[in-house]
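Journal club prep, shared notes

We agreed each person brings one worked example of a sequence with its structure written out as tokens. Mine is 5-carboxymethyl-2-hydroxymuconate isomerase. I'm keeping it raw so we can talk through how to read the token line rather than staring at a rendered picture. Sequence first:
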Amino acid sequence: MPHIVVEYSDTLTDAFDRPGFGAALHPVIAKTVDTAVAGCKTRFRRVEEAHLADGAQDLAMIHIEVSILSGRDAATKRELSAAVLEVARAHVAPVPGLTVHTTVDVRDLDRDCYEKHEVVHPA
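Then the structure, token by token:
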């Protein structure tokens, strides 16, 4: 925890610095929701086909879903959304003729039902 899922249009494959985004994102999330960077997990999903707005071909999207343990107030979640959006914008290079819609959704994981298991294998 936190779990981050990033869906992005395939037209952004070369413009979206995913490793840089993940490296910059995890400390921001950890600081905002008072957790450890070591617990952050980000998965990227390239979307090969999507219908955006009126179907125009000059549109692309990045949607970031951040799931955190329940109990944070709305102000903290708004702060987190804004911070994630800022990090994302800094890691997408302009693509001439393309409009990019970037969205963030912060969701709660039910603290009473969430389970985690970690196995450390000795070197």
